[in-house]
Each structure stands twice: as structure tokens, then as C-alpha cells.
Amino acid sequence: MAYVAVKGGERAIDNAHAWLAEARRGDPAVADIGTDQIAQQLGRAVDRAMAEGSLYDRDLAALAIKQAQGDLIEAAFLLRAFRTTLPRFAASLPLETGAIRPLRRISAVFKDLPGGQVLGPTTDYTHRLLDFSLTDGTPPPAAPLTAAEPEAMPRVHDILGREGLIEPDAPDGAEPGDLTREPLAFPAGRDLRLQALARGDEGFLLSLGYSSQRGYGNNHPFIGEIRMGEVAVEIEPPELGFAIEIGDLVLTECQMVNQFGGSKTTPAQFTRGYGLAFGQGERRAMAMALVDRSLRAAELGEDATAPGQNAEFVLGHCDNIEATGFVEHLKLPHYVDFQSELETLRRIRAESL
Amino acid sequence: MSKTERQLWMATLARAGRAEIERCLADAPALPTHKRLRGPETGLVMVRGRAGGGGAAFNFGEMTVTRCTVRAGERIGHAYIAGRDAAKAELAARLDAALQDSASADAFMRAVIEPLQALETERRAALAARAAATKVDFFTLATMRS
Amino acid sequence: MSLDLPGFADPVADAHATFRAVLDALAHPGRVQLAGTGLRPPAPLMPATAALLLTLVDVETPLWLAPDFWPAREWIVFHTGASPIDDPARAAFAVAATLSDFEGFSAGTDEAPETSATPIVQIAGFGVGQRLRLSGPGVRGSATLHADGLPPDFPALWAANHALYPRGVDLVLVAGEALVALPRSVRVERA
After folding, report:
1. Closest residue in C to B41 (Cα–Cα)
2. Exposure string over C57-66, b if 16+ CB within 10 A, otherwise e
3. Which residue, of A35, A50, B97, C65, is most buried by count of CB atoms within 10 Å of its CB?
4. For A236, which residue in chain C has the nearest alpha carbon?
5. DSSP 8-state class, residue A238
6. CA geometry: angle C188, C189, C191, nearest 5 deg
7. pLDDT at B146
8. Residue of B nearest to A110 (CA)
């Protein structure tokens, strides 16, 4: 592949940008949309832009969405570009998702469990009918409140773990790899796979997860638990020498319980798939958990035959910023390479006539 | 592990909005004059998770953070807060310094930290009450069936 | 307390200027560049060394400090975020006041020569002392460097480093607000 520097066109580009800005604004008779309105009222778009931009900042994501005219891949691209301008101060202590302040918590494997099933602000039970009352700006009725007593909410996996029914999961103290610093190399450890999936394209992860359910590397999943809520982020600055909370993130966590396996040395037990997403990203967290489990095929001694079990394929193509860059680069001038192909083709045709 | 008083006030200041801190400061003694030692400056923290929630750590994604360090008299105040509000980070660092000074600590605890903690408790309670209203009551279903 | 000594007055512009200075220094071996003008770092850090650290080192950079620089450790950690490491062989940057050899530092690998260390060595001054003739990429013909405070056998030490090319360390010499860089590609002889 070869590119040729092409000069000229600056005025056309300036004019195209001016038109883009005008088109973004739309009809000036219609009120300009505030980034605060996007942050407040288009929360799921903000969550997705943050997840795929791999940067948690609701206001920046809202701005990116406005600038990208709602194109979420473009918005994520803007966030990725912005983050490269900032120094990294620290890595956080690993999140204590077990201590999440839950806004939602459901399990599909146990009906009754300590802490109960909390639906939260879900669309699960809505009829998918367009609600025309939203067009006239009528304020919604207040959500009902119930006095809440604090109640422990142990993880479903810990409940299973007490009987040894699920594979154990313990911290190993190792420093995790970081694909924003070192390019991915294969085989990639689970730390790097989870990082790549956490910022991967939701549609791609969803389709891969779906393919695994349809038989392309079936891993027989159950939702052990989904939690969505607020979690504190802690860092330990060297000048302080102790950990401090710097704020809360809203996160969605999905714990899958997957098909069990065992051997002569280990008794049969369920296996795990894990998903974690910025914001209310339930579909993303579930898809990530399915793909995480699929990618564990080799380490769990399963045949890796399906696309979703192929780490090079999945991790090499899940990033929509990389994908859009490579697909869209086809718009760049390829005049010289194409010319050479034209000449070759003409020569072959001339020789064969 | 229980947190120290300083960890608690730093967490409270990190979560509070700048407008709320400023409102509380209106009823507090004037903050001592200060000198900036570092920042306020905005950067990133790489947020880490754990595989399966309790397993090996992985790099999950980044968040914006603003930090500031000031000297006020004998005290050095630090702040690291989520987001990009430089003015809030500076206020939080100044308050961290003032709260370490036993001569002024009580006044700032009463005027700023305690009201901010009350606001946060209230905000959490409001969310918890909404969540509790969506708790599924399977016990009722079982009763109906029997 | 060394935290009271500020870092860059204008972090973005000052870091850009320092980066440009060290880039020019590496591109023109032997040419003196200025960095850190106006900085008052804790002893024994010289202004140009401090500016280089503020520009090139962050929380993820493996930095090694010779023991004489430990008094400045708190300032370095506070302003750069780096936690100095014990093993010089793992360092991307190292700060020292004397130079015995380059053996302890990483020279990189043939596959990844860019992973080698960059030692920053503080010396007494430029324009006086040992006369060295430099030649190679970035030097038209040859250039002369006068440096006071290098070991007498520096040309031989450097020859061993230069012979490793494409491996080898890149050296930055600092005296006050002045700095000179010797990339591994440059030849150094006694003049």
C-alpha cells in the first residue's frame, strides 16, 4: 500500500468544515442542545461513548456526542484523542465491586438470595411501543420510594464458591498489562483480554456473544448476577502514603456462571465469565462476559474452534476506533497504487487478446 | 479497614459539587491564604478492576482527575478529585490544609464537611429508596400460590 | 521542605521548550542547549536536570537516582509522580553526578534498541576541561566539546558504548542550565 501526498484542496476543506458546523447546528429556529441536556437525558449514549472511548467523564462524553452529531463511534474517537493529551497521575486500587451501592441487582440463577432482586431503572419489562407523551415534555410522575434498610448483598459467585461449586477467583498481586502502553501480543493474558473487551465495540461483542449462544463455541451461560450502581475509586498518591477516594463511578458488572468441567484431579465445577462496563451498560457487560468466557476455551482445555474463541480474531477486531480508521482510510488517495493495478490489468488484457 | 478522619474529609470533598462547597464556605471562617505548590492540573487515573470481581487485576479504563497541592501556613493540603474542575480541586486542597490545623479544624468540620456529608447521605438515601421500591417481593408470590 | 520548591511555572510551555532543547541536543551532538532557566530545584539537582525530569519522567517511568540525589527524591516524586527504582538496569532514565561506566544501565536489545537507558549526568561545566572531538550523524565534519568533570578515560568508555550500536545508551550531560547530549551514534575522541 502506498499513499501519495496530495496538495491543494485547503479551501474546499475549510468550506466543508463550515458546512459541517452549520449542519451540526441544524435549523437555528430550533433551540441549541446543551451538553448538560445530553449528559442528563441521553445517558446511555454517554455511557457507550465513555466505554468505547475508554474514558470516564460524562461532560466530555456529552460534548463529544454533540460534536459528532450523535455518531457514537466518532464520539469515542474524540474521547480517545483527548485522553492522549493528559498525563496519567496514577492507577487506581482495584475496584471493590462487591461494595457497589446497588441501583440494580438481579440474578437469573437464584430466585431468593440475600439482598434480594432489585430491578432498578430498567427497560426489561416495558412494551417496545413509542411513547408519544415524550414529544410534549410532560414531566414524569415521581418514582415511588420505599424506606430502605441496609442489607448485605453477597455475590452469587461467593455463595456458589462456599460449596466449591464454581472455580475459585483470587487476586494474584501481579501488575496487569496495559494495551494503551504496550501493543497487544499473543497469547494475551486474561488481564489484557478484559481490557480490550471493556473498550471494544458493543455491536461486535454482542454479535460474538450471540454466536456463542447459537452454537459457535457454546459455553452454556447463566447470569449469576448483574449489578449496576456506584463504586468508589481509590488511589494511593505517594506524597500521602495512604489511599483516598477521588469520587464514584457508575458501573455495570455481569457475572456469568458457565458450563462446568472437571478432571481426575479437580472435581466438576462451574466456570466464570466476567463483564464490566462504564455507566449503565448491561448489554455490553453481558456480551463482554460471554466473550470473556469464550476466550478462556484454551486455558480451560476446551477445543477452540469458533470465531468467538479465537483471541487474535476477537481482540484484533473488537476496537471500533482501530476498525473505523482502517476501513475509512480507504477514502485517502490511492491514485498511484490504483494506477499500477490499472496498468497491469490493461497489459494482461492486451497480452491475452 | 476503618478510615481516618482525613481520609473521610478528602472523600467528602472529592464527591461534593463546587457550588455546594462554596455555599458551605459562606458560613465558615475565611480560608487561610495559600500558595500553590502543584496544579491545579487535570490528568488521568487508570481505573483497575478485578477479573470476576475478586480475581487478578486488569486495567479497565481511564477517568479524568484534577489535583492540587497548596501550602497554607504550616500545613500542606492535597486534593485529587474526579473530573476537570480546577477551582474545586484548589478549594479542596485549601480545605485539606485548614482541616489539619487544630486551631481551625472544628470550624471547618462544622461549616463544610458535616453539611456536605449530610447532603451525600441524603442523596444516597434517595437513590436507595428508589432502588428499594423496585425490589421484587418473591415471598408474596409464594404466599399467593400456597 | 522540598515540596515548597515549585516545578515548572507554566507546565505545558516549559515542558515543550525543554523537550525541544533535548531534541535539538540529540540531533546536534555537542551543541549546548539551555533548559530549566528560572527553576530552583532542591540540591543537588541542577536546573536543567530538574527540567529534564519534569519533562521526560512520569508515574510510569522507571527512574534510577544515584544515592547523592536521594535528598531531592521527595521533590522528584511529588512533581513527576515517578517512584525511583533500586535496580539501575531497569531504568529508562538515571540521574548521577559521577560516571564510572555504562555497564549497569540497559543498552536495549537488537530487536528493541529504543528500550535502552538515558543517563543524565551532572558535571562541573562546559567550555572548560577535557577537550573531545565528536563526529558522526548530526555533526558536520567534526565538533569540539569541552567538558569539565568527566572521567579521564571517557573516550574509551564511550567507545565501548558506541560499539554496541544500534544498542547503547544515549547520554545527557548537564551543567547548571546548560545541557549537551551524546547519542549512541556519535564517535568521541580525545581532541
Report:
1. C11
2. bbbebbbbbb
3. A50
4. C81
5. T
6. 125
7. 44
8. B138
Q: Which residue segments constitute the domains of chain C, with CATH numbers given?
A: 2-190 (3.40.50.11310)
Q: Give yes or no for a contact between C78 and C3, defined as CB atoms under 8 angstroms apart.
A: yes
Q: CA A19, A20, A25, A26: dihedral to nearest 10 degrees? A: 70
Among A87, A89, A238, beta carbon nearest to C83: A238
Taking only residues 59 to 78 of chain B, the set having a beta carbon closer than 8 angstroms to any beta carbon of chain C reads 69, 71, 76
CB within 8 Å: A55 and B134: no
Residues C157 and C101: beta-carbon distance below 8 Å = yes
Q: A138 to chain B, minimum CA–CA distance in Å? A: 21
Q: Rounded to whole angstroms, how far apart are CA atoms A25 and A32?
A: 7
DSSP character string of A127-143: -----GGGGGTPPPPPP
Distance between CA atoms of residues B92 and B67, nearest Å: 9
pLDDT tens per residue across span B37-95: 999 999 999 999 999 999 999 999 999 999 999 999 999 999 999 999 999 999 999 99
Q: Does pLDDT of B140 surpass 60?
A: no
**How many Å apart are CA A38 and CA A199, to the nearest integer?**
21
β-strands C93-96, C63-65: how paired? parallel
* Band of residue C101 on the pLDDT scale cut at 50, 70, 90: confident
- Give Cα separations from A310 to A187, A191, A295, C96 (angstroms): 10, 16, 7, 48
3-class DSSP assignment, residue A85: coil
Instruction: Check CB contact under 8 Å for A146 and B69.
Output: no
Distance from CA of A130 to the nearest CA of B (A): 23
Residues 6+ apart with CB under 8 A from B105: B98, B99
Residue listed under C-alpha cell 530549566: C36
Nearest to B57 among A86, A176, A245 (CB): A176
Instruction: Please report where in the chains the cell 476466550 appears, as a residue.
Output: A295
Residues of chain A with pLDDT under 70: 1-6
Complex confidence, ipTM: 0.93
